[in-house]
Amino acid sequence: MVLAQNMLLCLFTFVFALILSLYLTPVIGRAALQFGIVDRPDGKLKKHRKPIAYLGGVAIYLSFLLALAFTFKFDQEVLGLLLAGTIVLLLGLIDDLGFLKPWVKFSGQLIAVLVLVKSGIFIKLVFLPTYVSIPLTFLWLVGMINAFNIIDVMDGLSAGVAFFAAIAFFVVALLNGKMTIAIVAITLAGSLLGFIRYNFTPARIYMGDTGSMFLGLMLGALAMIGSYTEKDVLGFFAPVVILGIPIFDTCQVIVARLRKGVPFYHGSPDHYALLLRSAGFSVKGVILLSYGAAAILGGLGILMMNLTSLSQVLIVAGVLILIGILGIILLQRIKLK
């Protein structure tokens, strides 16, 4: 009976967030166009034909927040998530409206992570002392914030990958019996699905740094809240697998830029999605391929969490790492057009 009620609550928040996102996204898109808050093509990294409205991240955030507000009382973890998410959202919004120096953006990200740590959300592994867990938490979350920012280079890509990751973390939370976190994850998924309706190619609105940074923080935090090591001590690989696509693209971009002698934090078209496009894939083909990979990785992550044999976990992790390395090597051979 309780399980049925909880599942109905999850369904309600998902549908409510979806409806809100379907309504708010075009409204905010029209406002962005009216006030000139747009992403203009530059012929280099930005090759779309006409200016596209920004601020899609605001629609995702508002849909997510409003749906949660009508659902349950916020506990300390949820309040920490929302406050930290709001901080990075405002950072991204300032950056989308003008220009934010990298050190200011980085400092803001550190403050947001500190809020999460103070609310009790940080990496908790029995074999790691706190003085190691806390720095590792900062590294993980700042990395994920920027990983989703890096992957946001093609219509519907970042939002779709984030959607499948949110669904995976929803399942993880259900398996762990953490209903509050499950509701947060499924609400985020609903907000993303509504946004994808307008962000899928050809996109009518972009999420901008506002959305990509918010998603990176939320999903990075949801990854830490789950319990992965109850059946095997290497279960912590599961969230890394679930978020494998943004992690892979970050590694690919870093390798490509280092090979060119370009600082890794400088912009360049070395993303796997753009390289696949140069190799002959259509935009829709790249997006659907990425969605399929994100869904498979989500399933593998959940599977790894439930494996009882360490050798099985090591085999799956080893195969995925090998595939990732091979993928990066092959992508390096593609010439951008």
Summary tags:
337 residues, mainly alpha, 13 helices, 2 strands, two-stranded antiparallel ribbon, 1% strand
Shape: globular
Total domain count: 1
Low-confidence stretches: none
Radius of gyration: 19 Å
* Average residue pLDDT: 88
**What is the H/E string?**
HEEHHHHHHHHHHHH
Which structural category fits the helices and strands? mainly alpha
Largest sheet: 2 strands, antiparallel
Number of helices: 13
Percent range of helical residues = over 70%
User: How far do the termini sit from each other?
Assistant: 58 Å
Oligomer: single chain
Q: Count of DSSP E strands?
A: 2
Beta strand %: under 5%
Strand order of the largest sheet: 1-2
Could you describe the 3D structure shown?
By secondary structure, the chain is an all-alpha fold. It contains 13 helices and two strands, in the order αββαααααααααααα. It has one domain. 72% of the residues lie in helices and 1% in strands. It has a two-stranded antiparallel ribbon with strand order 1-2. 47% of the residues are buried.
Short description:
By secondary structure, this protein is mostly helical.
Summarize the SSE layout with pairings:
Layout: H1 2-34, E1 38-39, E2 52-53, H2 56-69, H3 76-97, H4 102-118, H5 130-151, H6 157-176, H7 179-199, H8 208-225, H9 237-242, H10 244-260, H11 272-278, H12 283-306, H13 310-331
Antiparallel strand pairs: 1-2
Helix pairs in contact: 1-2, 1-7, 2-3, 2-7, 2-8, 3-4, 3-8, 4-5, 5-8, 5-10, 6-7, 6-8, 6-12
